[in-house]
Design brief:
Number of domains: 1
Order of helices and strands: HHHH
Structural class: mainly alpha
Number of helices: 4
Distance between the termini: 19 Å
Strand content: under 5%
Largest sheet: none
Shape: elongated
Helix content: over 70%
Length: about 80
């Protein structure tokens, strides 16, 4: 029913992104605020993790027979 390869890939993206964000969390806040590269990495990893999470949700919604969500918000609103 579910595409195990897709699920595994998305979970891997989320895990890698969260691990990278944890490393960035060790940077003192004042240093982080002035480090444009660290900010860019944090934004990128957060975006990638959220996109993978929404992709997982979309897959589950579709495979559960609830239709095709029109957008990410629709994924959250399915009951």
């Amino acid at each position: 029913m579910y595409n195990q390869s897709l699920l595994s890939e998305r979970v891997g993206i989320i895990t890698a992104s969260v691990n990278r964000l944890k490393l960035l969390a060790n940077i003192p806040l004042e240093q982080f605020r002035i480090d444009e590269d660290a900010i860019d990495i944090a934004e990128n990893r957060l975006r990638r993790a959220l996109e993978a999470l929404f992709d997982l949700g979309r897959h589950v919604v579709i495979k559960s027979g609830y239709g095709v969500p029109a957008d990410y918000r629709s994924v959250i609103e399915y009951e």
